[in-house]
Amino acid sequence: MELPTKLILLVLQFILISFLPKTSAQFQFLYSKCGNINYYTQNSTYQSNLKTALNSLSSTPRVTNGYYNFTAGQTPNKVKAMVLCRGDVPYNTCRLCIRDSAATLPVSCPNQTEAFGYTDNCIIFYSNNFSFNAVKERPRWALWNNKNVSNITGFNNTLTSMMNTLQNKASLGNSELKSAAAQINLTTTNQTMYGLVQCNPDLSRFDCVKCVQYLIFSFFSKDFVTPTFIAAGARVITPSCNLRYEIYSFYGNLTDVGPPPPPVPVSNRSSTPQVEINQKSHRSHSTIVIVIPIMGSLVLIISIASICILLRRKKRKKSATNLNKEEIENFNSLQYSFEAIKVATNDFSNDNYLGEGAFGAVYKGKLPDEQEIAVKRLARNSVQGDVQFKNEILILTKLQHRNLVRLLGFCFEEEEMLLIYEFVINKSLDSFLFDPIQSSSSSMPWETRYRVINGIARGLVYLHEDSRLRIVHRDLKAGNVLLDTDFNPKIADFGMAKLFNIDQTQSVASTMVGTFGYMAPEYVLHGHVSTKSDVFSFGILILEIVSGQRISSFKIIGEKPENLLTFAWNKWLEGKAWNIVDPTLPSAFSTEILRCIHIGLLCVQHNMADRPTMSSVELMLSSSSLSLQVPSQPAFFTRSHTPSNATSQGNTSIRSI
């Protein structure tokens, strides 16, 4: 029975191809990208699976709100394919775009296992190595209007505000549609800005936010924005999400996308329009003659393919359900109800307020078993907060070290995002170092400061080398170091941390996060991230601990204005390094203190290759007999050196390209 079935399908496909209008010459992608890595051979299993997947995309009787995906075959010849129509595109236009895209993409990328195509109306992507419900950031394509805008600051602020609103609205969509559009009047130019944001519906809220956030920051790369130029319109497209803005209307009603029109009786099909694009009021008799056999062929193919699709969907759904169940079970022990946390914090009362972080307020609480907790309540509708929430859960649940703050659990319900940590009684390091009331020798003696330096170093060694993940913190500063009862340090706030492969040494960040003054020069200037980025931040932290002053507001009475790095380097060269030291610290520890200044200067050298690793730093701190290299000139950061597209207010965190 198998051979006749294949013959029937081949004949039907031949009939369909013979009668279909030749659209390949008319249809053209605005952009297409071929994998250029792996190839399949003609008449191979992979090619057969690819045809099956693409036929399924183009012949499925219904595309749920413009999105459809299909998997064909088994590893290593498995093919995963997906299509996504723009959120406002009518159903029939969407179907035509999918049909033509599925027919054209294999021709554009012959014998390649991965390909991506984009038109104004739809996106198509297939590969042997990706997951439907995960963010796929590459390939990425961008197109922008070379026309400049007159009021760069006002336009930029409006654009940022609109995109933040749209990404939140799109991410809150359902499993059928995650798309949002808006228009905002530009008061300075009497123009209107139009924007559209869309995610694949099978992405979670967090992954949608993550994907769109990646694209938003792409706007602020040097290609889109400079101090003297910002594009009047642009679009950025990836397989998982896309966004666009223009100063003219380019989208329709987002409610236009819906199920196909009701079936038309066979007797009336000859008079039913089959194509909406470029449709005219008159039809020739020859067009009707062509349409009838095409529809007949489609009906037969769809009938046969639908059975296969239903069977595959059933199998895939069962597999997906099991996977989600396993994931949920892994996190069950970490989930708290919102009601339980409300009770624990006395409904987030002011009496339990501990402070404000980059993404929301922190409250003290007490669980029924009397365990004290700290609850970070992330601000609603915060895109960065969404990303941080997921990042902290994924990272901290896999890490256990005495010098890292411990995540006890989380809550995500009623539009609330809460992170529950162990309560660290002595707050953060900056409250002792930089508070003029508390920063005395009695509250923070040198022995305590030295213990803090060593503890932070051990925590970083664990993150960089000893944990099962390789992690760069990216926002190490005194405010993100908590102190327990015995003033042992615990590194906190992993919302900006970046995960590396075990054998990976550095990468280029698509999103710049951190705090000016603590950020390494190669990161600020070029986006290069590595473990040496944390080493630089650690060097700044050592100098702050020794001097008792912030990098951002350093000042020595009687000395000319300089930043901490400049001052420390000059005094080191003059042989007057003790001038850097907090006056409250006794000279009895001068040897140990001066050695720490030496190590700090080694950590902040401009060339990251000259900086030591954290394991070397830990060894330098623990062994006074180990000789130290002579440091070279450090990187200098003052406000005049701050990049023109960045903002800094004291010790505030920044998120920009």
From TrEMBL:
Keyword Oxidoreductase, does the record have it? no
How this chain sits in the membrane, per its record, is:
Single-pass membrane protein
Q: Which Pfam families does the annotation name? A: PK_Tyr_Ser-Thr (PF07714), Stress-antifung (PF01657)
Signal sequence bounds:
1-25
Task: Cite the Gene3D superfamilies for this sequence.
Answer: Gnk2 domain, C-X8-C-X2-C motif (3.30.430.20), Phosphorylase Kinase, domain 1 (3.30.200.20), Transferase(Phosphotransferase) domain 1 (1.10.510.10)
Region entry Disordered: which residue ranges?
A: 637-657
Residues in Gnk2-homologous domain copies: 28-131, 137-250
Please give the start and end residues of each transmembrane region: 288-311
InterPro entries for the chain: GNK2, GNK2_sf, Kinase-like_dom_sf, Prot_kinase_dom, Protein_kinase_ATP_BS, Ser-Thr/Tyr_kinase_cat_dom, Ser/Thr_kinase_AS
Q: Where in the cell is it found?
A: Membrane
Q: Name the chain's protein.
A: Cysteine-rich receptor-like protein kinase 10 isoform X1
Q: Which organism encodes this protein?
A: Spinacia oleracea
